[in-house]
Amino acid sequence: MSQGTLLYAQSGGVTAVINATASAVISEARSKKIKVLAARNGILGALREELIDTSRESAASIAALAHTPGGAFGSCRYKLKSLDADRAKYERLLEVFKAHDVRWFLYNGGNDSADTALKVSQLATEYGYPLTCVGVPKTIDNDLAVTDTCPGFGSAAKYTAVSVREAALDVAAMAETSTRVFIYEAMGRHAGWLAAAAGLAGENPDDAPQIILLPERAYDEAAFLAKVKQVVAKVGFCVVVASEGIHTADGRFVADAGGAKDSFGHTQLGGVASYLASRVKAELGYKVHWTLPDYLQRSARHIASKTDWEQAQAVGKAAVQFALKGQNSVMPVIVRSSDAPYRWKIEAAPLSKVANHEKKMPVGFIRKDGFGITEKARRYLQPLIRGEAPLPYGRDGLPKYVTLKNVAVAKKLPGWEG
């Protein structure tokens, strides 16, 4: 086997199964006698030359990663700009790679991460450095192009659907003398996949959630309030699931948390459920409860989808295989071959077709009134939340998760002043 090391890094918001991908990456590389380094806190660790020697971890610990949520090596939101604008940073990455004989770079993240992996590959080619870059898909938003679904989404979708179904039973029990409207806020800036998954909680037309608000449709307050009133009159209560990214017809986010921007240039969102609750109470007079599950949506490993868990490991294993075959600037993507029975496979897609592209909910997945999902959407979504992923529990009644030693390798370069 060729000499060299493989560098793995996690990017952006983590998921309930991103460590399952990490476990598969390390296990597959070990089977090929390839040493794996991990960047501490994502691409920042690579820039700072803060690298972790995964060979110091036992096989049992690496296996336990497969059922541990969070990001075992740390992640970060740190966007590299174009090669021209951030050339010094890209060159620093190559210096670090050369210093540690990194020949394979696996970047586990979303759209922006795919773009970074692509640009690193381009610069390596320009400098004649033998480096194979592979993007590894991860996001709970399910908005990556090309891949049928994205590891991380299925588990977050299952958490959402289960939580909404359980909460709806609570609301139904109390509706006559207490809460009439319950509002659940789901993650999703521009794509409403996670909010749409809540639609799996109900099977019949009057089942909760009776209203789903998606960013693919402009928010119309008058229509929304009229629908809430109609549902309460018919059913006795109303469960609403709203994507954090819903916006008015002029493009303004309904929940703009003070206009702050994150490192990717995205407006910080949050509070749409609270806002909607205040409007329902003020205009309709109903007692309203609302919830903002936030991080719980992406960290709930205890209720992870088996499908999602298996796919997270499959893309990790395939990423190593693609890299060692020299398949540069690609991403292992999930290709669906059948809905019923559900069948899928892994194929390589060019990073250029994934980077900076965004997959939104198809028109055919959204009900004509804009307040729910269609049967076509249900056929797509349902297999993704199917099955339960194994999880060991301790005598204390809590899941047994692993914390790695994360032993750093010695630095070889001057400190980075970026």
Could you characterize the architecture of this molecule?
It contains 12 helices and 13 strands. It is of the alpha/beta class. The strands form 4 sheets. It has a 5-stranded mixed β-sheet, sandwiched between helices. The chain has a 4-stranded parallel β-sheet with strand order 7-8-6-11, sandwiched between helices. Strands 9-10 form a two-stranded antiparallel sheet. Strand 9 and strand 10 form a beta hairpin. The longest helix has 22 residues. It is elongated and about 70 Å long.
* Number of helical elements: 12
What characterizes the major β-sheet? Answer: 5 strands, mixed
Radius of gyration: 22 Å
| Assembly form of the protein | single chain
Q: What class, by secondary structure content?
A: alpha/beta
- State the total count of DSSP E strands: 13
Assess the beta-strand content as a share of residues.
Answer: 15-25%
Q: What's the average pLDDT?
A: 94
Keywords for this structure?
five-stranded mixed beta sheet, elongated, 418 residues, alpha/beta, four-stranded parallel beta sheet
Short structural summary:
Helix content is 34%, strand content 17%. With 418 residues, it is α/β, with parallel strands linked by helices.
